[in-house]
Amino acid sequence: MKKIPLYAMAHGRSGDKGDGSNVGVMAYDQRGYEIMKEWLTTDRVKQHFGSIVRGGVDRYEMPNILGLNFILHDSLGGGGSESLKNDAQGKTHAMALLRIEIEVPDDYDPPKVGTDGALAPSGELTPAGS
Amino acid sequence: MSQGRIVRIANGQGFWGDSVDAPVRLIEEGPLDYLTLDYLAEVTMSIMQKQRRRNPDRGYATDFVEMIRRTLPTLRAKHIRVVANAGGVNPTACRKALFEVAKEAGATGLKIGTVQGDDILDRLDELRGQGVPFENLDDGKPFSEIQDRVLSANVYIQTRPLAEALRQGADILVTGRATDPGLVLAPLIAEFGWGPEQYDLLAAGTVGGHIVECGAQCTGGNFSRWWEVEGWDRLGYPVLEFGEDGRFVVTKHDGTGGLVSVDTVGEQLMYEMGNPNRYITPDCVVDFTSIQLEQEAKDRVRVSGIKGGEATDTYKVSISYLEGYKAIGQLTVSGPDPVAKARVCAEALWGRLKQAGYTYEKTSTEFLGVDSCHGEIIDVPRRVNEVVLRVGVKDPSKKAVDRFGKELAPLVTSGPPGVTGFAGGRPKATEVLGYWPTLIPKHLVQPEVHVEEVS
What we know:
The complex is a heterodimer of chains A (130) and B (455).
Chain A: E1 2-5, E2 10-17, E3 20-27, H1 30-39, H2 42-49, E4 57-62, E5 67-72, H3 93-98, E6 101-104
Antiparallel strand pairs in A: 1-6, 2-3, 3-5, 4-5
Chain B: E1 7-11, H1 22-29, E2 34-37, H2 42-54, H3 62-77, E3 81-84, H4 91-104, E4 111-116, H5 124-129, E5 150-155, H6 160-167, E6 172-175, H7 182-192, H8 199-212, E7 238-242, E8 248-252, H9 262-269, E9 279-280, E10 285-287, E11 292-297, E12 300-304, E13 307-309, E14 314-334, H10 338-355, E15 362-368, E16 386-395, H11 398-405, H12 411-414, E17 419-420, E18 430-441, E19 448-453
Parallel strand pairs in B: 1-2, 2-3, 3-6, 4-6
Antiparallel strand pairs in B: 1-7, 4-19, 5-14, 7-8, 8-12, 9-10, 10-13, 11-12, 14-16, 14-17, 14-18, 15-16
Helix pairs in contact in B: 1-3, 3-4, 6-7, 7-8
């Protein structure tokens, strides 16, 4: 097994849902989706977010688009206009989840995506050791 | 896609405050049958109620009337019809303003429609008398907790009355709190005659509406692989090409910037999603796990396979209420040691307020540039060049919140060195609006359709 940033094998988006947020992540291929479905449990997501998520985490599967939808309860410091937080709507929570280091089999390499297969201009997302 | 007639529907406004030029560009840059504009969010309704209380001619999205003034000749020349929830809490006043604009422009024969009946603020007592409890949908709390503090109450009405207004010939249709996807579904029901029990078709129109309701978020905006998006300064807003069989293509006008791909549309499908198996609208219940996406050509994504089911017998109601006051302010702290100095500032601020006798229901201290977004998820860099200290309070007492606002500026001269960025004056107390989702039986709400011609 090896660890890669989730960002290297999936993309995602987040927004507010009452006093919580939702984070949708989509894998780039079927195998990646199966790996993600197995490894990215609600417990691991809850642990990853630490003090940001004060409530529980729910997960829904969307196999049609290779997606997992997470609901992070009580993650905005109060919903709507009540929140004092800079990110009062959880807009950055998807980027936060994509930063998790996910364990994948040694022979799994995510497909090259986009125009040149580059992960990000900064190189921040390049998996360790590659 | 079927070879039959195609209806083109665009969305040029994802929220009140979105680009003012986007709708104008959509009208001018390409083929279009309908332009939809979404101005409303939960908070928007209560702001508009306050505006109406101060001035009975206000309480709607004034930007919309301005936009119509700018584009009316082109809209008429190209036969583009407009569907917008710009009516807010006062569609009647919005219609009046539109009539004035139309008359100035000499737009004789233009038909302006409204759909009302969603605003139940003045009916709350009557409806409670009829046995509607209005208990909180999320936590079951009784309505009595907020009944003296209610600011607005609006029903997410079904889409069929909107379609009826279009069938009566409305060229510009203004609603209050219709659903966001309903703005797209309404023209489809009107054009194709989809029936109230054709749930797969209603679901397809709803999914189309969901994809475009946040404007450019399906055409490259907010996309994870942002570095692949080109032409940010002329980002195209979304256009849907719908067939009568409910299959459709998501695209944008030729020559605009942005990106429409399975990935950009897929991300938006999941946006603000709860349970994807049961996406509940007043028109149907959509199964988002049935949706198939396919890249048909560059910047063209075909959407098909959508399944829907019977609607529930209740409408969702969005009630807002006064939940206290808040203020937020910030200071910039330069290096060396910006984080340590910002912490000293924060400690001084909270300590001074405590000594003055002020405590708060809720406070917040964040260090922008260090950990405000992702907390401890990512290692804090050992050295940053500068940091923004962002502090806030929330409390039932307006006086206490205003007092907080006076304690920030003194830190520039009575804190560590290199503190700046105190702009815009003292942060003032603003109202915190609580959001109370609840339900109402559908038969208690009767939307009213009104279409009138400019003479």
